[in-house]
Structure to design on (233 residues):
């Protein structure tokens, strides 16, 4: 049975405990065992991290120690998946450039704050994660992120919608969901999920998270299969 570590905490406005519990229910429904852990101490044991197939961060505006970020980097590079949403992953540790390098992006703004209605545009054929999902509309924070050009973009949203200082620039399609790799590890991110109830209001958002987490959790399996193939050729 695959196993996931879901750690949560930080800024309470993102409802980390509720989101962590939701992610656990989703994964358990798919046959995965989950450890829900408050705080960051769980990242201090490299060998313990290596026992998981997936790490799901639900932690906003924290401080990650040098030891912890290196442990996460090591685990993910050796096949442990990393998947998360909104500020719980890409605004988790603003001072850790290594974390941002691993995850593929960092939040910088949400013009208009909460309550902006916008469309999530699915990139057709971009991944099995998005198969059968149509464009959909959400009312929430619209994340503006600085992103790694190496990411594989699965969904975007158009800026500007809210008229602010950035609106004098050309329109841009900002990534909403993406995948990338870190060594043998698979990384998935979705910027939706300001509050837990967004996933009830937008089933497509939850489906993206479900598929993305399950995809990321296959890193160890795929790496082992590739190693066997290499030995036999």
């Amino acid at each position: 049975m695959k196993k996931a570590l879901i750690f949560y905490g930080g800024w309470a406005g993102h409802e980390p405990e509720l989101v962590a519990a939701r992610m656990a229910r989703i994964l358990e429904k798919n046959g995965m065992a989950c450890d829900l852990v408050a705080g960051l101490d769980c990242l201090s044991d490299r060998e313990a991290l290596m026992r998981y197939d997936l790490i799901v961060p639900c932690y906003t505006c924290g401080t990650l120690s040098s030891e912890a970020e290196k442990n996460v980097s090591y685990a993910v590079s050796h096949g442990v998946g990393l998947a998360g949403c909104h500020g719980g992953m890409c605004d988790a540790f603003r001072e850790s450039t290594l974390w941002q390098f691993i995850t593929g992006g960092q939040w910088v703004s949400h013009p208009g704050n909460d309550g902006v209605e916008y469309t999530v545009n699915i990139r057709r054929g971009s991944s099995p994660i998005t198969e059968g999902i149509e464009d959909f509309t959400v009312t929430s924070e619209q994340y503006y992120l600085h992103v790694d050009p190496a990411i594989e973009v699965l969904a975007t949203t158009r800026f500007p919608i809210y008229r602010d200082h950035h609106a004098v620039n050309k329109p841009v399609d900002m990534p909403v969901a993406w995948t990338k790799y870190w060594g043998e590890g698979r990384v998935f991110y979705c910027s939706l999920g300001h509050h837990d109830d967004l996933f009830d209001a937008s089933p497509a958002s939850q489906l993206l998270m479900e598929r993305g987490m399950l995809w990321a959790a296959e890193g160890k399996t795929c790496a082992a299969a590739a190693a066997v193939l290499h030995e036999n050729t």
